[in-house]
Predict the 3D structure of the following.
Amino acid sequence: MKILTIIGARPQIIKAAAVSRAVKNLFPSQIEEKILHTGQHYDTNMSQVFFDELGIPQPDYNLGVGSGSHGSQTARMISGIEEVLLNNPFDGIILYGDTNSTLAGAVAASKIHIPVFHIEAGLRSFNMAMPEEVNRIVCDQLSSICFAPTQTAVGNLQREGFLDSPATFRDGRRRRVCNCGDVMYDNSMYFSTLARQHSTILQDLGLQPGQYILATIHRDNNTDDPMRLHAILHALADIAEHDNIRIVLPLHPRTRKILNATPALLPADQSKISIIPPAGFFDINMLEQNARLVMTDSGGVQKEAFFFEKPCVILRPETEWVEIVNHGAGIIADADYDRIITAYRQLIDHPVHFPHLFGDAHAAEKILQTILDY
Ligand code: UD1
Ligand code: UDP
């Protein structure tokens, strides 16, 4: 089988590592994988660092679309992906998550009848103001196989009629839904030892295990709303000051751009906040493994905190990863100063449990076997 994997944004490059590794180690004679990078993320520390650290093959195609408005960026991707698909025979494409690169791949391939396999299908925030919610709903609808990472995701697809829909694709087949576990869990487990061997981030920043908070902020509703960004940053600074605890904040370029333009959003006293460039995967994995607690608006970092049994304050109005909240390991605090402080206190002062919820760390293998069977 010849498969095209489409990636573009940081989390997709990381997720693709798990599947590429499984192709190479488990299905080398059955699956030929080619990689297309849309170029949505392009800074070295948002893209190339992951190829270098995680052993992902270099992309066979790079569209180099760069940044832009949703419409123009997605349009450039659709047209570039279509050209590659029309000029090369592929039996299917693999897409990850919910970015504009995901949407573009789904639209381009489905219109020319190439089966779409969507990894991280079925997640819903039920917040249509999120660009990601739009992307994932469209992509699920266009997918031949929806690979759901959790039972909640399967339930969402069931509610939307995916399990008994009469819709068929040109090959006569109906959409399939498969609960395969989470490829991010595969990755975090696989790379945790390597991270301990290779990362020097704790020494570099002078951090003691268990004595710092890891924070990330990049969601558009937080970065593009000064009140929300101000509230989050001031809550972080006040927690750091009150509890005498360091905050490590690897800053996404989107957030960096806003703070460069409006430095007044930063707290006056940043002495306990280490703002660093986006971290490589070994460094972020090490920071997650050793944090006292995580505060984030990232989908991926929420889950990785859970994998490493760290409580998480979720800086969003809702989450797709509801299991984390339902088990008390995460608290939704939105970008509300008081709620962030209260959630932090609650999670620091009470024991938290982390049951196994995200599969058995063999999601990639299950996904590839299901694609081969299909
Ligand atoms: C995108 C995804 C989001 C995902 C995130 C992961 C969409 C709609 N959003 O958000 O779901 O959680 O990636 O990180 O697809 N920039 C750089 N260098 C880069 C990349 C981006 O400077 O290498 C800056 C540019 O100013 C750009 C901005 O970041 O305009 C936003 O980038 P973009 O890819 O549009 O969205 P993200 O916020 O990264
Ligand atoms: N990540 C990273 N460096 C960082 C912050 C995050 O490598 O400085 C990784 C993180 O470990 C996770 C993925 O990026 O695997 C999550 O991506 P991001 O937060 O950009 O997007 P989201 O998951 O919210 O779509």
Notes: The CA atoms of residues 216 and 298 lie 7 Å apart. The first helix runs from residue 10 to 26.
